[in-house]
Design goal:
The complex is a heterodimer of chains A (190) and B (273). Chain A has eight helices and no strands. The longest helix of chain A has 40 residues. Chain B is α+β, with helices and mostly antiparallel strands and 273 residues long. Chain B has a domain of 190 residues: Beta Barrel (Thrombin, subunit H). Chain B has three helices and 14 strands. In chain B, strand 3 and strand 4 form a beta hairpin. The C terminus of chain B is likely disordered. The chains are: A mainly alpha (190), B alpha+beta (273). Chains A and B meet through helix 2, helix 4, helix 7 and helix 8 of A and helix 1, helix 2 and strand 1 of B.
Chain lengths: 190, 273
């Protein structure tokens, strides 16, 4: 009882939920700022790690599918803002969020970084496939499509899906570990 | 009513957070991520290349000059037969450093550190050491985003400088571009210089693009040639932004099935903002 009274008497910016949302928003911002950069060592065949995807996986791994879908929607809109609204990234990131939450990792798999890296690997391939499907659909349906023929779309998809999956899974622990520690601490406090 | 109120007291915070997150993401999307790119520009300022790094591109400059000479010689020849000749279309521009790349794997874009505050606007043409790079597709107060000519959705009207054979340059998303010729048997050979054509609506004419690397005349529906770009797109550090007014509304009728140039469908204005 006393702890509740103490918590609610704090100013709004020091309450746990406010601090948690600020840390969460700041981590998204860091991911966004990492996206256009090509830091040496973070690049393979001109492809950088998909930081937003790693973030969505880290978020969804211990949450339900609605929360995963919401994170996918918000981060997908943000990535659309940074590139182009078509094909949309919301779809691929929503699929990633829902699938990761549906895995119910904590029930079947042990808590460790290797399994997170594996999940990120699979999800990166799925996310690029969803984008490639959207582009192929546009190519098939619209007569004025600017995209190349299907063969070259899927050849390109192979290349970037593989390099994005390898890089993202290698860099996943760097983001997953601190975020997971923070959310664990917050949920045990609250 | 009571159930609704109970739901509200339990989930008000969560619902508020979700609405806030979705609406702010939507707002950022509507502004083309200008805020994020401003922050990115501010953060990477200490890392942006200094003027001394320009020497690394000396070789590319020499290549560009050689290609310009080839183009000038050809122009000179045609000038002798032509009385009414227009002045060159490229104006002096702003110098900008490349501070970032596309925030996604499917696009070939670069981010420059000059924006609307320095007079850069959507549609301006960007060249680098070596020749044409692309065109500006989005600006924020101090950054701008450039769609490279190697992007698969990019189309540039071009010609062979030697023989005046016309074609369209298409990106291949992997730092290589191909030119599709309009004629069945174009007069072209390996090593020919490709420059933008005067029929291009989005680019001024006579900017060097690259050299023909290999030719495939049997390709259907149109003969194709692979171009080796003269500007090193993957290691680019500097670029020039030239003011240019794209002619997006043209009086000439557009043939049905004709490929619109560089993402612009004449009726709909810009296909990709």
């Amino acid at each position: 009882m006393t702890s509740v009274a103490r918590v609610s008497s704090l100013p709004i910016w020091r309450q746990p939920w406010a601090v948690n949302s600020m840390v969460t928003a700041a981590s998204v911002l860091v991911c966004l700022l990492l996206l256009p950069s090509r830091i040496p060592g973070m690049e393979l065949l001109g492809v950088a790690p998909h930081w937003l995807l790693i973030w969505v996986v880290a978020w969804s791994i211990k949450r339900n599918q609605w929360q995963g879908a919401m994170a996918g929607l918000v981060l997908g809109l943000l990535q659309d803002a940074m590139t182009a609204p078509h094909p949309t990234h919301t779809l691929s990131l929503i699929v990633v969020g829902v699938l990761t939450a549906r895995l119910q990792k904590q029930r079947y798999l042990q808590e460790d970084i290797v399994s997170v890296a594996l999940i990120v690997f699979a999800m990166a391939v799925i996310a690029e496939t969803v984008l490639a499907l959207q582009i192929s659909f546009n190519q098939l349906v619209s007569a004025e499509s600017l995209y190349p023929p299907l063969g070259s779309i899927w050849l390109y998809h192979q290349r970037i899906a593989l390099s994005s999956a390898i890089l993202s899974s290698l860099w996943a622990p760097a983001l997953y570990y601190p975020l997971n520690r923070w959310w664990d601490r917050y949920s045990s406090d609250a | 009513m009571f159930a609704l109120r109970r739901w509200w007291t339990r989930h008000a915070l969560k619902a508020g957070m979700v609405t806030l997150a979705v609406s702010s993401a939507w707002l950022l999307r509507a502004s083309d991520g200008a805020l994020i790119y401003e922050a990115y520009n501010w953060l990477t300022r200490p890392l942006q290349p200094g003027l001394s790094r320009e020497q690394q591109f000396e070789n590319s400059y020499i290549l560009e000059l050689q290609q310009r000479i080839v183009e000038l010689e050809n122009q000179n020849r045609s000038l002798q037969t032509m009385a009414d000749y227009e002045a060159a279309a490229v104006q002096e521009g702003v110098r900008a450093a490349v501070i970032g790349r596309a925030a996604d794997h499917w696009w070939q874009q670069v981010v420059l550190n000059r924006g609307s505050r320095q007079g850069v606007a959507v549609g301006h043409v960007v060249t680098g050491p070596g020749g044409l790079i692309g065109r500006v597709i989005a600006v924020s107060p101090s950054t701008s985003r450039v769609l490279l000519i190697s992007d698969p959705t990019s189309r540039v009207g071009a010609k062979v400088s030697r023989s005046r054979a016309m074609g369209v340059v298409r990106g291949q998303s992997n730092n290589r571009v191909v030119i599709e010729f309009f004629e069945k048997l174009p007069d072209v050979k390996t090593g020919d210089v490709i420059v933008t054509s005067s029929y291009s609506r989005l680019f001024p004419r006579d900017i060097p693009i690259g050299r023909i690397e290999s030719i495939d005349l049997t390709k259907s529906p149109a003969p194709e040639a692979v171009i080796q770009l003269s500007s090193p797109l993957s290691i680019l550090e500097w670029a020039m932004v030239h003011p240019f007014e794209p002619q997006e509304t043209v009086d000439a009728p557009v043939l049905p099935g004709a490929t619109p140039e560089n993402g612009v469908v004449p009726e709909a204005g810009e296909a990709r903002p």
